[in-house]
Amino acid sequence: MLNLNRNHKLQYPVNWLKKLNLRPGDKLEVVEQDGRLIITPVVVIPRDQMWFYSKEWQQGEARVNEDIKEGKVRTASSKAELFHHSQRLQVLKAIDKVSDNPLPQNEGGYGKPGYCAICKGR
């Protein structure tokens, strides 16, 4: 049983506060239903962070978690290793692009494989 003090405040038993992990300043929703008060702890999300809780973003988070579980995510032990892997991926993508369209650049292609447009050769 709780007592309502003259400032209209309730003091909750400490074991309730610990069980619900409540601290001073936390928000509580109070709803009257059939003569009873239902008190529920709530978290208020700032508007500029709402994107994270959108259906689309959460679906993406779920896909990433699955990729992690399936071992599809690579890690690097240093910035140099990460950069090296990133460069390798860019080179492989460029080779694929050139292979798909080996026309010279002046004819709308990406140039010949192994040809550097900047240095006019390799």
Instruction: Tally the beta strands.
Output: 2
- Total helix count? 3
Going across the major beta sheet, what is the strand order? 1-2
Which ranges are low-confidence, i.e. pLDDT below 50, for 5 or more consecutive residues? Answer: none
Q: Report the average pLDDT across residues.
A: 81
CATH topology descriptor of the domain at 1-51: Pemi-like Protein 1, Chain: D
Which secondary-structure class do the elements indicate?
alpha+beta
Rounded to the nearest angstrom, the radius of gyration is 30 Å
What is the helical fraction, as a range of percent? 25-40%
User: Which CATH class of the domain at 1-51 is shown?
Assistant: Mainly Beta
Summarize it.
The chain has 122 residues and is α+β, with helices and mostly antiparallel strands. It has 3 helices and 2 strands. Helices cover 35% and strands 11% of the residues.
Provide an overview of this structure.
It is a single chain. The chain has 122 residues and is an alpha+beta fold. The chain has a domain of 51 residues: Pemi-like Protein 1, Chain: D (Ribbon). The chain has three helices and two strands; from the N terminus they run H-E-E-H-H. Strands 1-2 form a two-stranded antiparallel ribbon. A hairpin with a 2-residue loop joins strand 1 and strand 2. It is elongated and about 85 Å long. The mean pLDDT is 81.
What descriptors fit this protein?
single chain, about 120 residues, alpha+beta, Pemi-like Protein 1, Chain: D, 2 strands, elongated
